[in-house]
User: Which sequence fits this backbone?
């Protein structure tokens, strides 16, 4: 799955993390302060001096890292796996910056709305139109970058699937005897690529959103001095977002721990049923009704077991997400009742809090998809174990769970 697309993945991925840490340390250590200036409001923020300096720094770091790997460990797919990954990372960062700019716009916009409705100061239609035009510019950038990023990511993922497909086809004589081999090469590589596209992009965005919005939330939440029940603590909204998200993630991971294995067995019984049907197309002795009925009983049993396990998982997930809607308002209740903030800062705080909280809740919102990806990973790992002469994963020989 990885060696087909990335150069020496056991070394490559740790080196990526190390290089990111080093680059961030250099950036926040001194490079960040070399070119600073006032941050304009609206679309012009993206070509301000600080933003252009970061773009140049990111490009330089990427070139150094990519050149080192391409020289030291040449790989036929390194152009896509290294440079392509850097493009996706930068595009995700840019999308987060658009969200930061939009969050900054909400402050003056809602303060304008409050002033207009309460008549606390004179307002004009020109001021209102100007605020809307600023948002229109930011929205245009957001839509453009999102569409282009999605287009590029789709091509990137298909190249990864192409590399996997070529790698498995090259080793087909060893792999063909594995149960469901044809499905694993054709369908599982496709599903792995498609699932990874959504999960990978969401994970990158969650991490970058966390990095961008944590300082904003800390700054905006200065008027928030206490929380209900807990009382006064430093950075209360940051701690509340972390604790709430970690508790929810831990709870759902615990109650959904069986799902990847059940989904794996689901794919296995489906493959056995499909294989018998395909053999029956050419051989009249195969796919007789009793055999198909017996195979479909396995399909039915496994699906019903999967549905049953999803019942308690969905109960926990839905209850948590419904409570999640009102949670930030509960936290802000003492501040709102005391009238310490206006409508604009309140909306900025809520948006920043939601961004931070949703970043921590990546596993909660993506768990069903992660389950699917883990089941695909387990099937492809069986392929690779056979290819390298390793013992097959234990799940390959375990009976499917039943009711």
Assistant:
């Amino acid at each position: 799955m990885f060696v087909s697309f990335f150069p020496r993945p056991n070394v490559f991925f740790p080196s990526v993390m190390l290089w990111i840490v080093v680059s961030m340390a250099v950036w926040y250590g001194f490079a960040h302060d070399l070119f600073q200036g006032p941050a304009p409001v609206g679309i012009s923020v993206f070509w301000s001096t600080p933003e252009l300096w970061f773009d140049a720094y990111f490009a330089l770091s990427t070139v150094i890292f990519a050149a080192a790997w391409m020289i030291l460990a040449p790989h036929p797919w390194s152009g896509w796996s290294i440079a392509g990954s850097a493009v996706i990372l930068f595009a995700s960062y840019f999308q987060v910056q658009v969200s930061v700019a939009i969050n900054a716009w909400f402050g003056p916009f809602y303060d304008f709305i409050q002033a207009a409705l309460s008549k606390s100061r004179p307002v004009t239609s020109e001021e209102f139109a100007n605020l809307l035009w600023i948002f229109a510019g930011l929205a245009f950038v957001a839509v453009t970058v999102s569409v282009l990023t999605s287009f590029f990511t789709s091509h990137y993922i298909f190249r990864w699937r192409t590399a996997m497909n070529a790698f498995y086809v090259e080793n087909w004589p060893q792999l063909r005897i594995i149960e469901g081999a044809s499905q694993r090469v054709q369908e599982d590589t496709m599903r792995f690529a498609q699932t990874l596209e959504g999960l990978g992009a969401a994970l990158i965005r969650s991490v970058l959103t966390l990095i961008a919005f944590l300082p904003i939330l800390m700054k905006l939440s200065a008027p928030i001095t206490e929380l209900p029940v807990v009382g006064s603590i430093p950075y209360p909204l940051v701690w509340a977002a972390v604790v709430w998200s970690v508790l929810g993630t831990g709870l759902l991971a615990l109650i959904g721990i069986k799902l990847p294995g059940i989904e794996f067995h689901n794919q296995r019984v489906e493959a056995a049923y499909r294989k018998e049907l395909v053999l029956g197309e050419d051989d009249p002795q195969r796919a007789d009704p009793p055999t198909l009925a017996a195979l479909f009983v396995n399909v039915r049993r496994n699906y019903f077991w999967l549905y049953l396990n999803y019942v308690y998982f969905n109960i926990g997930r839905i209850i948590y997400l419904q409570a999640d809607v009102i949670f930030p308002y509960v936290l802000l209740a003492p501040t709102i009742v005391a009238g310490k903030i206006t409508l604009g800062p309140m909306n900025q705080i809520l948006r920043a809090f939601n961004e931070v909280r949703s970043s921590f809740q990546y596993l909660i919102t993506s768990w069903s998809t992660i389950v699917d990806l883990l089941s695909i990973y387990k099937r492809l790992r069986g392929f690779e174990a056979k290819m390298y002469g390793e013992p097959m994963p234990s799940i390959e020989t375990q009976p499917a769970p039943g009711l």
